[in-house]
Design a protein that fits this description.
The chain has helices at residues 9-17, 41-44, 59-62, 73-78, 83-94, 116-124, 135-144, 149-155, 161-164, 169-206, 224-231, 243-250, 303-308, and strands at 29-33, 63-67, 102-103, 113-114, 283-284, 296-297. With 310 residues, it is mainly α.
Length: 310
Amino acid sequence: MSETSILHPADAEALFDQGLVDKCDTTGFQRIHKRRLNRSSDEEHSEVPLSTSLQFESAEDIFETIPTSLVSFETLQWVGLSETKAHDLWHEWLDWPEDGPQQGVDAEDGRLQVQYDDFIIGHVCDEDDVADDDDVAWETCLEAHGLNREVIEAIMDPHFRDARLTESALFWAKHTIEVRYGWLQDIQAASHERAMTLQDRTNRRSNPDKGSQSSTGGSDRRSISGAQQEANAGIASYSWNSSSALACRNAPGSLVLYKAMDQSRIRGLYDRHGNLDAPRSLLSFSPSDFSCERRLYYFTPDFRVAEYYA
């Protein structure tokens, strides 16, 4: 199996048998049911029927098109680059020099490694940034740095103007690429976890005396993504409304703080026992409102403010 394949072969085969994914084709993309994307997809899209065929007209709204490989030309397009910029970066990646840093996916000799997402961001968000309240300058900057029209229009959406102007054009370009690439990594992680679950079930059938409980603590009655969230300490679909969370919010003298951020950035926030392990993942990128150089922690006591910046 290629380390960059987004769907694990065992998971892809099982999903194909269920009609939840199509076969890989020559386009470098494939469609997968929205309820089988990441760890929270089953809850987020619970109203979407699993029985919809890929051949139905409604499938366009029920299936998501994703690249088949994380390190690919298609991923460059998917994260928001124009076709011209994607071609330039893909050819540069394929023509990687033998000396100097090694590509992260192949590095084995201890040299510095360049991961694919860092490679993309480093070539898009390099210089000549714009932060003034000038829409024409913003669009010119984003287009010059290789963002496609769809992403530029999304960043320039008048509805989010106030939020946009809290940062610069290249900040939002970087943010967009990071979030979209991170989402593909989440899909990949969820697929590999489903493959592991399939392997565990196969092992239990082969060794029934080793126990009847599933590796996720009897999660067969729960949704796919719910079980996957519980397998990742500290990330659970019910955490906000759990009894412990309600007790904390209602405790006298307590203050609840909120932060809006992409779920892919909190991987590793908790250890396998559910204890806080990597709080640095909550840091906001610089430049920010209170620092041009340092990454700082930003929280708000107002849920509506966090939702606005989500």
